[in-house]
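Support request, please re-run this one:
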Amino acid sequence: MENAFAKIISELGEDLDREGLKDTPKRAAKAMRYLTQGYEQSLEEVVNGAMFPSDNSEMVIVKDIELYSLCEHHMLPFIGKAHVAYIPQGKVVGLSKIARIVDMYARRLQIQENMTKQIAEAIQEVTDAAGVAVVIEAKHMCMMMRGVEKQNSSMKTSMMLGSFRDNPATRAEFFSLVS
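Re-run finished. Output below.
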């Protein structure tokens, strides 16, 4: 990966021996490995057994989970936040695990639409909830820095499973609580 970054920098017409660029290929490779560490993680490792019995059957929401990802089309960042909810059926997942699940999928080359679905399905798999809802809102550098260059645009995606899909009142409660 370091050699690939060196080639990219050279192809830009830069001098790899210039003081500011001497270690850039190594730093860029290290940064890319960090930004895509989600490929090295599994759902089982992330959750790490943090499931707890609970008789709660009311909505659990974790909102404003910041996320940083790279679009798979241009490898430019998109930055935003996720709102995740589920309705437990006998067990709950550790609070930090929801944010870790978001991070695992965000730290891959992604499109927001797929990431939203992946997070919802992972929460469903882990919790066996009566319903799961995920909303992600993000700003995409591929739209802000290049192309149409629209600085104030953002994208919202949602995925509703189970009772969030089937019950309009449950869906409405979720949206009112995350607004």
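The helical segments are 2-11, 24-35, 43-47, 95-106, 112-127, 141-144, 163-166, 168-178. The chain has two domains: 2-35, 51-178.
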